[in-house]
Amino acid sequence: MSMVAITGASGVTDIVTGIGNSASLTLTNVDLKGQFSTGSVALQGGGNTTIDAGATLDDSGDLIFSNYYQSLSVTGGSLNVAGNLIENYGDTQTLTGGNITVGSIEPNAGISNGYSYNSYSISGGIYTVTGSVTGTLYGSGDQFNVSGNGSFVVDGSMALGSDGFTTSGFGSIELASVTDTAN
C-alpha cells in the first residue's frame, strides 16, 4: 500500500469515486463518493472533506485535523476511525445522516493549554465515540448541537470543562460517564 494525497485547488472540491486502499490518506477539499480503507487520515488546509451517501471511509489508525478551521461532513455515508480523532482549533464536524464512529476524541498536543472551540452539528445519523472524549488543561470549549433524529453517544467518559450541549427535535446525547475536569 502507498501514501495517497488528494488536494483540490483553492476554492475547488475534487470528487473521488471508486474503491481504494492506502497506508495513509491526506485530504484537502475532497468529496468522497466511493469505498476507501486506510491506515491513517490527515485533513489538511482550511478546506472541507465530505463523505457522501453510500460512501465509506474506514481508518484503522487516527484521523488528524492538521490545521485550524477545517470541516468534515458526513452526509449519509459512513466514517469509521479505529483510533483517535485528533481535533485542532475551530474545526467543524457535521453529520446529517449515516454514521461516524471514532475510538476517542482528543485535542492536538499543540493546544494542550488552551481551548479548541470545535463544533459538532448532528442533525441525522449516529455519532459514536467508543472510548473517551478528553479536553485540554482548561477544557475544550467545544459545542455539541444535536437535532432532528441525530444522536451523539459516548461509551467511555466525557471530560466536561467549558463545553456546550444542546438538543432539539428528537436529537439525543448519551454520555456513559462524565468527569468534572478537563483532562
Protein described:
This protein has 183 residues and is mainly beta. 0% of the residues lie in helices and 57% in strands. It contains no helices and 18 strands. The termini are far apart. The mean pLDDT is 88.
What's the gist of this structure?
The chain is 0% helix and 57% strand. The chain contains no helices and 18 strands.
Keywords:
183 residues; mainly beta; 18-stranded parallel β-sheet; 18 strands; 0% helix; globular
Q: Termini separation (Å)?
A: 36 Å
Strand content: over 45%
Query: What average pLDDT do the residues reach?
Result: 88
Helix content: under 10%
Number of DSSP E strands: 18
**Count of individual helical segments:** 0
Shape: globular
Largest sheet: 18 strands, parallel
Class from secondary-structure proportions? mainly beta
Radius of gyration: 15 Å
Order of helices and strands: EEEEEEEEEEEEEEEEEE
> Segments where pLDDT lies below 50 for 5+ residues?
none
Topology:
Layout: E1 3-7, E2 14-16, E3 19-22, E4 24-28, E5 30-32, E6 35-38, E7 41-43, E8 48-52, E9 56-59, E10 63-65, E11 71-87, E12 92-107, E13 119-122, E14 126-129, E15 143-146, E16 151-159, E17 164-167, E18 172-179
Parallel strand pairs: 1-4, 2-5, 3-6, 4-7, 5-8, 6-9, 7-10, 8-11, 9-11, 10-11, 11-12, 12-13, 12-14, 13-15, 14-16, 15-17, 16-18
